[in-house]
Write a structure and sequence with these properties.
Length: about 750
């Protein structure tokens, strides 16, 4: 409350007497004295804390704490020397002086150990850990010795542990008791100067307040604790944007990162008038992204992600700064942080390109960076990938835009969206044809896991090309083509034997080992080369059927099958009716029974609730992905305005039932897949839209978001959605009303 002048209470309203009472408390603390050295030390620490607000300078801190720390070191506060050092360390750390804070916490560790207050020694050690993580430094010194301390005795400790009492009360829903206990927990941590314990108490207090519906106060304490994910979740329940300026300007990196997470969460809710200033603040914060520490908290990288979250609202005034930030991505040699930062910068470049259109960046002298750096981020092994001229080629001849509807979490790949008629050493029509060729399944090659998606991206670029150039099948043979996802491992399964050795039964000698290049020379181009050089519809159908076989292969692992489903879904809009019918029929079977291989079953068994380590391969997402693909293929092959036929009604009923079952799953991603399938079916078959009204009452906000965009609107439903506590639901309703009536206010 008193970290700021004027005071800023969180749980109670500010009255006219608060600041006056604070001034009187300061004067009383300055003159108060006590015979007990511990009480006297606490009074002096309280006065020193109240004398310097959070925005205080290093000189003010020195004047406030220097004499007190010296007196404690001289033995004038017997039994409280560690308390004074820890409180002073907290004050310096909260104001960004990490070096002085580390020295003081180290003194607190030694003093607490000498006084046999090993709980306070543990708190000082953990605060050192927290400080090192906050500053991106490796852990060192006494940080790893907390487990060897003989006890947890503390100078300021109640008879009962308030942390355990607060957790127990919160678990049983006794919120008044939980609030009292957690405030005691926070009080003890703050008075002890234990920054790590204070952050835990603040996060727990935020949980209690959020459970009680006080999301504004919960957001405040989450930001103080540096809990970005929780703060972002709490701010979505607020009726208006939350101002995070104080935490954004904090010298504590955990708080900076949490405030940026909040800005990202409310990017869609900010008024247009404040968007330019918000983006400017974020870009200013990200100015040192290439030199910043790699480990979390990483507010610089998160600031770039927050700017990208503004999407089409990225202002024109930010483009120059974005291009300047991206320039190191094309440097040779690349910065040490290139692998970590480049994908984030690439995503921001793509969003900026999409927001400002294709003409604005073209008119800039360094326009090549906009696509060149983005392309480089996904081609780290190419010798010329970081050449700015590659970006110029991409802008002038390629369509460097992200693919819409990609699976969440997968970065966009701008190089895969090159125009089919574009020329260049790595984007010639023949190279696009080679990349889009049907896989040959060579047993000695291990390809990048994105091969299926990359192949479809190249194929879609060919399908959208304005002009196509004939390519000879000889240029697409196995000795010329390579998988779209690149070969990352190649081995010889049958190594050549010594020509002088005798022949072994059942194994060919060296001269009988088949040579792919020789076979092609003798017999001409193989079937894959002929398909790749032939008509594009036939090529698309061949790739689709190959992907369909991969998706229903019960001997393959789920991640590979999901990748094939994801790629097939992107291609579904370019396929003829018979292929779509096969996809619908066969993927519906997979959604009923995915047929997991032994590896997937063992992985699921090893990832149970009591497993310490869990391997998330998305195995449980396979049925939902198959259901979404079957639904998309179904609606693509029918007239969306015509009513459902009898056979189609049976399919729609099964999709609705399966989607409802998925939306009851405890996994949020599985629930979302069920909602997507229901949404897509209602979009392609208006008869089924009336069955989606239950999505509006679902407890998951992401399900309600999809429901808001498809449920038939009535005045009552519109009012219900407009009062939804989740920001993204209200935003979905606003987008829908804007699309229906662009000129009408909503």
């Amino acid at each position: 409350m008193y970290d700021w002048i004027p005071a800023r209470p969180v749980l109670s309203p500010l009255d006219a007497d608060t600041d006056g009472l604070l001034a009187r408390l300061r004067s009383l603390a300055a003159s108060a004295d006590h015979r007990d050295p511990v009480i006297r030390a606490r009074l002096r620490c309280a006065y020193a804390d109240a004398a310097v607000p959070l925005e205080g300078t290093r000189e003010e801190l020195e004047r406030s704490w220097q004499q007190l720390v010296r007196a404690a070191a001289a033995g004038r506060f017997r039994g409280a020397r560690a308390l004074v050092a820890s409180r002073a360390a907290y004050a310096f750390a909260a104001r960004g002086d990490g070096e002085q804070a580390e020295n003081l916490w180290r003194q607190a560790v030694l003093a607490s150990s000498e006084e046999q207050l090993y709980g306070d020694a543990r708190g000082a050690m953990r605060s050192l850990q927290y400080l090192a993580i906050d500053q991106g430094r490796p852990l060192g010194g006494p940080n790893g010795a907390t487990g060897g301390l003989p006890d947890r005795k503390r100078l300021l400790a109640a008879a009962l542990d308030p942390a355990l009492s607060a957790l127990e009360a919160a678990h049983h829903g006794r919120l008044p008791d939980a609030l009292g206990d957690v405030r005691r927990y926070l009080w003890e941590a703050r008075l002890s100067g234990d920054r790590r314990e204070e952050a835990s108490a603040q996060a727990l207090l935020g949980d209690v307040l959020s459970t009680g519906g006080h999301h504004l106060a919960a957001t405040h304490y989450y930001l103080e604790a540096g809990a970005g994910d929780k703060a972002a979740a709490a701010v979505r329940a607020l009726p208006r944007p939350f101002d995070v300026t104080n935490w954004l300007n904090s010298p504590v990196r955990h708080r900076q990162a949490a405030s940026i997470a909040v800005m990202k969460a409310q990017a869609a809710a900010l008024p247009d008038t404040v968007v330019p200033e918000s983006v400017r603040q974020l870009l200013e914060h990200a100015a040192t992204v290439w030199a910043a520490p790699h480990a979390d908290p990483a507010p610089e990288r998160q600031a770039l992600n927050a700017v990208a979250a503004f999407g089409r609202r990225i202002p024109e005034s930010a483009v120059d700064t974005i291009l300047a930030l991206a320039r190191p991505a094309t440097a040779t040699p690349a910065p040490a942080s290139w692998v970590v930062v480049a994908p984030v910068v690439a995503n921001l470049l793509i969003q900026a390109y999409w927001a400002r259109g294709t003409t604005t960046p073209r008119n800039r002298p360094d326009a090549g960076l906009l696509a060149g750096a983005a392309s480089a981020a996904f081609q780290p092994v190419a010798p010329d990938a970081r050449d700015p001229r590659a970006g110029t080629r991409a802008l002038t001849g390629h369509r460097a835009l992200p693919r819409r509807g990609r699976r969440p979490g997968r970065p966009a790949c701008p190089r895969a969206l090159a125009r089919g008629h574009a020329r260049g050493p790595d984007r010639s029509p023949s190279s696009l044809r080679r990349a889009a060729a049907p896989p040959r399944g060579h047993p000695s090659q291990r390809c990048d896991p994105t091969q299926a998606t990359e192949t479809v991206d190249f194929l879609k670029a060919l399908l959208k090309a304005d002009t196509l150039i004939d390519v000879s099948p000889d240029d697409l043979g196995p000795d010329q083509a390579q998988p779209a996802g690149r070969v990352v491992l190649q081995i010889q399964l049958n190594p050549p034997a010594d020509t002088s050795s005798t022949q072994v039964y059942g194994q060919p000698t060296a001269q009988h080992i088949p040579d792919q290049a020789a076979i092609q020379t003798a017999t001409g181009p193989d079937q894959a080369a002929l398909l790749a050089s032939g008509p594009l519809p036939a090529l698309a159908e061949a790739i689709a059927r190959h992907l369909l076989a991969m998706a229903e292969d019960t001997h393959d692992t789920s991640p590979s099958r999901i990748q094939a489903i994801d790629a097939l879904r992107a291609l579904a809009f370019h396929l003829p009716g018979p292929v779509l019918f096969d996809i619908t029929d066969r993927m519906l079977i997979v959604s009923r029974n995915p047929g997991l291989p032994e590896f997937d079953r063992l992985t699921l068994e090893a990832s149970g609730a009591f497993s310490r380590g869990r391997l998330n391969l998305g195995i449980t997402h396979l049925p939902g992905m198959a259901l979404v693909l079957a639904t998309d293929a179904f609606i693509q092959q029918r007239d969306r305005q015509s009513p459902l036929a009898a056979q189609e009604t049976a399919f729609a009923d099964e999709v609705m039932a399966s989607s409802a079952a998925l939306m009851r799953d405890p996994d949020a991603e599985v629930r979302k897949l069920g909602a997507i399938a229901m949404h897509d079916l209602a979009h392609g078959a208006p008869d089924a839209a009336v069955q989606t009204t239950g999505m509006l009452s679902h407890p998951d906000p992401q399900v309600r978001v999809l429901g808001a965009s498809i449920v038939p609107l009535t005045p009552d439903r519109q009012a219900l959605l407009a009062s939804d506590p989740a920001l993204e639901v209200r935003q979905a309703l606003s987008d829908r009303l804007t699309a229906q009536s662009p000129t009408a206010p909503n």
